[in-house]
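Minimal example, chain plus iron/sulfur cluster.
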Amino acid sequence: MSLGCPKNLVDSEVMMGLLTRAGAELSPRAEDADVIVVNTCSFIESAQQESVNTILEMVEHKTSGRAKKIVVAGCLVERFRDEIRRRIPEVDAVVGTGELQNILVAAGVANSATRKNDSPFVVLNSRAEGDAREAEGRFSREQWAGAIADLPNYLYDEETPRVLATAKHTAYLKIAEGCDHPCSFCIIPQLRGKFRSRRFESVIAEAERLARSCVREITLIGQDTTCYGEDLGLKDGLARLLEKLAGIEDLRWIRFLYAYPNKITGKLIETIAAHEKLCSYMDVPLQHASASVLKRMKRGGGADVFLRSIEKMRRAIPDLTLRTSFIVGFPGETEKEFEELCDFVREAQFDWMGTFSYSDQEGAGAYRLEKKISVSEIERRRKHLMAIQRQISRKRKKALVGREFELLLEGMSEETDLLMEGRTPMHAPEIDGKLFVNDFPAELTPQPGEFYRCEITEAHDYDLVARIV
Ligand code: SF4
């Protein structure tokens, strides 16, 4: 079971690759498994709760079913290592985000001697910014009972086996791991370690291998992809990487997620605009728009700066699809600051937007801040912001009716057997609204994983309907 974000999914794929190479057989059905591995998320409280519920559900398969072992992996282990084993004694082993190679011993498919040969996972790159933050205690996990002192410091490479869990035509590619930013609501740096990039050649080699195995769409991920290469001494690392990837013949769509606002350079924008294979798509989690809240979040920026940067991106990249996410209810967020955010959302006109409710995380800077907002007020603000965005989204989606786009057909819809689903360059895998396909020429048998031209025929709040032309 893999929970959480695409970065965690890639870790699951690496663990599946290691297990398969060691001779284990994989099963997607927990009831058929001898060993159940739950790769957990610990981003916010609701994700922690979902992880715990899933572990408890899997424990049932051990107490009354076939499973002999339960292994818990991922971010929850970094956060609650001892507590998991103490509170859920049925858990046989835990594997942190920096010890993926230990899955072999944990699952019982290799003996402990195997661990000695796994040094290639460890990387030693770092950025001056990360070193300085480390000295300030940004990565300290001392308050977390049971957390091991060593920060996660591994990164897979092109030699690492991976079993893709996505459809065969699309894959995530992790280009970096960890994060050096000081955002005061976030414990990901403590869970994932300091920022480190994969070698440039390693990313290209993996992309080429994926392209040879019929992958046509690649989504680059990392906690912050826009810092890519800084620890390797590369200038404009992400732009250079994208340029090189665009040269891989069999790849058709390439995009990257999670850009840090002040790391979007002119060169990056130019590069996206210059290559057809690079989707005109930017995911820039802004987190807030009020300068005072952003300051307390230790991020900087504000509505004016962001609007200028959005305008620059839209001017340079025709038809840019812009995605962002916000946190509402940050400690001390006044009604006025929240209104600033609402005004900004009205003005920025995002194509896709997500809103998270602030949740307190022990170990995050904001945990110590006063003036916490009540859960009910946070929920009111979240709903209000999403209602504003719903109207914007409806208007923007309506404007697409009658226009033609390239379509990657995914297959039959999960919601109904009468429709197919696909994505355009405006749709990143899994997160964005749906695109249903309800018509195609009589002489055509549409195939999942193939590209077609489509015309948008209907628009809803977030979803679109199209026909293949
Ligand atoms: S950029 Fe900020 S929010 Fe994102 S992972 Fe890093 S510290 Fe967390």
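The CA atoms of residues 154 and 357 lie 31 Å apart. Confidence is low (pLDDT under 50) at residues 115-120.
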